[in-house]
Design a protein that fits this description.
Layout: E1 5-9, H1 14-25, E2 29-34, H2 37-45, E3 50-54, H3 60-73, E4 79-82, H4 97-125, E5 128-132, H5 145-165, E6 171-177, H6 183-188, H7 191-200, H8 209-220, E7 231-234, H9 246-249
Helix pairs in contact: 1-8, 3-4, 4-5
Bound molecules: nicotinamide-adenine-dinucleotide.
Nicotinamide-adenine-dinucleotide is lined by residues 9-10, 12-16, 34-36, 39, 56-58, 83-87, 106, 110, 132, 134, 177, 179-180, 182-185.
Length: 250
């Protein structure tokens, strides 16, 4: 089998779209999964070797349908990129159960459902999974009770899946991105937050979608054939530098 197939969730825009483009450059076919039909069609119709799959990753029946669409049209799955995510920031007291569930059902349930549904196909190819967490899953900060907890859970889920699926040759890794100027981030990053990130990151800037895609595609590829259960922070150095007291940098 020379052809390779990646399933990228949340592929209509942002990091998922950049990851789609990098897989295409690598010669892979890509199943672009997203629940935003119009945005997905717009992205898919300008690209070759892609299959647009309009599905919601938080819905178990839709996820089963997604896998059967991919197997029918593309015949195999070599990599699953669990990238679809939502962000809602707010104080603990204002985060009602509905908001908590909205974040968990995509960010955590979606990863669980997609990985489980793709496992048989991944066994056949001895393929790999890359989950997209966040630096918010590595370090706690204010306003991220739901988002940060969902991403920390994705990090643990990565290790659980790596432990159990390794015997089938399936590798499971995770990329924890730092801030990137996507629609998701810009909806919750005020100018004050943007300035604070610049200050806290050793590289003093936001990352690009492409820089995150490079880390994702490396982990998904044969170049990482002995790497599993790992969390790669593509974050401009944010995680490495701890609390980073502004007074100590003057
Ligand atoms: P984005 O909002 O630009 O793109 C996310 C895509 O996921 C959208 O097309 C959306 O329609 C889709 N999506 C959301 N929920 C879905 C669902 N239930 N089913 C199917 N599709 C769904 O966001 P992005 O910034 O590219 O984020 C991609 C991933 O990277 C997310 O998991 C996010 O948490 C993570 N991340 C982003 C940043 C950042 O700064 N942008 C930082 C750390 C982590």
């Amino acid at each position: 089998m020379t052809k390779k197939v990646a399933v990228v969730t949340g592929a209509a825009r942002g990091i998922g779209l950049a990851t789609t483009d990098l897989f295409l450059e690598m010669g892979w076919d890509v199943a672009m999964v997203d629940r935003d039909g119009p945005e997905l069609s717009k992205a898919a119709e300008t690209r070759s070797n892609v299959l647009a799959v309009e599905r919601d990753v938080s819905d178990p029946a839709a996820v089963e349908g997604m896998v059967s669409d991919v197997m029918t049209w593309l015949g195999q799955i070599d990599a699953l990129i669990n990238n679809a995510g939502v962000a809602e920031f707010g104080p603990v007291a204002d985060t009602d159960f509905a908001a908590w569930r909205r974040v968990m059902e995509t960010n955590l349930d979606g990863v669980f459902l997609c990985t489980q549904a793709c496992t048989d196909a991944l066994k056949a190819t001895r393929g790999s999974v890359v989950n997209i967490a966040s630096i918010s899953g590595l370090r706690a900060s204010t306003l991220r009770v739901a988002y940060g907890t969902s991403k920390a859970a994705v990090i643990q889920l990565t290790k659980q899946h790596a432990a159990e699926l390794g015997e089938h040759g399936i590798r499971v890794n995770c990329v924890a991105p730092g801030p990137v100027r996507t629609k998701l981030a810009m909806a919750v990053h005020s100018q004050e937050i943007i300035d604070a990130y610049h200050d806290a990151l050793p590289l003093n800037r936001y990352g690009s979608e492409r820089e995150i895609a490079e880390a994702i595609c490396f982990l998904a590829s044969e170049k990482a054939s002995f790497v599993t259960g790992q969390i790669l922070a593509a974050d401009g150095g944010f995680e490495a530098t701890g609390v980073g007291l502004p007074a100590l940098r003057k």
